[in-house]
């Protein structure tokens, strides 16, 4: 058996003549996915959700698990949603932790077919008070964390010629948000990442899309005052705060076979808040 497969960037892709060798074991953790017995089917995919312990990620993980997919749910705490599949402790700011979590997920569920890069943090401050550590930490989790996840799971996806990657960005990636320069920059970065990967991975049947939620009712938004929440609701055309399940429904479509001709898209799930951006 040929141990490697050549993936040439001459095939309608951006970098002429560059060749990538898709080794059988691209992980530092060496999982032989070619001999793994678990097969992917449209109703039984291997799904990895980062930040699946609560909020939007938990709703996404629960929806996939409820539909019969095999879900691995990554978070620092290692807590899983009650119906969200296998819970794995993982810090997306640490490459070794990500590689190990992907190894565990692959051993349990088979090579990852669907990646939802959802883990995210905020550290809101006005620019004059925003230290470099605050800027770098938010970028490291929200943007570089997504890069680490893609790096760890994409080899088998490309070899299998089928895959779905969804990045959870935010409405503020397009609109900007005072006091959130670090967060908005990280979320805008996900769009450039996704669209570049959509071009790189498209010829191999792997779609890469971005979901941009607006104001969603989770721990991340729970600390706002009632007055502030009322002001936000007033600015949303659908006049309500979104639920994590609203986001999960759009992720479900993008990762389904029905969503197979959508790539490089940024889909708002924001009740109309970001219209025009
Ligand atoms: P929550 O704060 O409720 O949950 C964040 C999740 O990310 C938790 O599961 C947390 O788990 C995990 N997480 C955070 N840091 C890390 C890390 N370094 N490694 C692994 N896991 C991590 O957030 P939401 O559910 O509200 O948000 C989910 C995503 O949606 C985020 O990317 C957020 O930016 C985005 N979003 C949210 C909006 C909202 O209104 N809620 C609006 C727009 C976008 P643990 O603490 O156990 O590590």
Give a written overview of the molecule.
The protein has 277 residues and is α/β, with parallel strands linked by helices. The protein has a single domain (4-22, 41-269), classed as NAD(P)-binding Rossmann-like Domain (Rossmann fold). It has seven helices and nine strands, in the order βββαββαβαβααβααβ. The strands form two sheets. Strands 5-4-3-6-7-8-9 form a seven-stranded parallel beta sheet, with helices on both faces. β3, α1 and β4 form a beta-alpha-beta unit. α1 crosses α7 (244-255) and α2 (95-109) packs parallel to α3 (132-160). The longest helix is centred in the middle third of the chain and has 29 residues, at 132-160. The radius of gyration is 18 Å and the shape is globular. The site of NADPH dihydro-nicotinamide-adenine-dinucleotide phosphate has 31 residues, from α1 and β4.
């Amino acid at each position: 058996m040929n141990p490697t497969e050549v993936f040439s960037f001459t095939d309608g892709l951006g970098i002429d003549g560059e060749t990538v060798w898709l080794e059988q074991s691209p992980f530092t953790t060496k999982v032989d996915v070619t001999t793994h017995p678990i097969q992917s089917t449209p109703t039984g995919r291997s799904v990895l959700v980062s930040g699946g312990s609560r909020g939007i990620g938990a709703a996404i993980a629960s929806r996939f698990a409820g539909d019969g997919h095999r879900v691995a749910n990554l978070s620092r705490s290692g807590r899983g949603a009650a119906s969200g599949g296998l819970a794995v402790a993982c810090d997306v700011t640490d490459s070794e932790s990500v590689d190990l979590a992907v190894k565990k997920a692959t051993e349990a569920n088979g090579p990852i077919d669907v990646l939802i890069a959802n883990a995210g943090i905020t550290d809101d401050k006005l620019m004059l008070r925003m230290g470099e550590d605050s800027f770098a930490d938010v970028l490291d989790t929200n943007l570089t964390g997504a890069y680490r996840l893609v790096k760890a799971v994409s080899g088998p996806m490309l070899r299998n010629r089928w895959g779905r990657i969804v990045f959870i960005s935010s409405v503020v990636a397009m609109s900007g948000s005072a006091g959130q320069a670090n967060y908005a920059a990280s979320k805008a970065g996900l769009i450039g990442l996704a669209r570049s990967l959509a071009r790189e991975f498209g010829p191999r049947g792997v779609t890469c899309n971005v979901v941009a939620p607006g104001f969603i009712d989770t721990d991340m938004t729970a600390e706002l005052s009632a007055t502030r929440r009322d002001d936000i609701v007033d600015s949303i055309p659908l006049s309500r705060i979104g639920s994590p399940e609203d986001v999960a429904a759009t992720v479900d479509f993008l990762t389904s076979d029905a969503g197979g001709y959508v790539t490089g898209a940024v889909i708002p799930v924001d009740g109309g808040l970001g219209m025009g951006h």
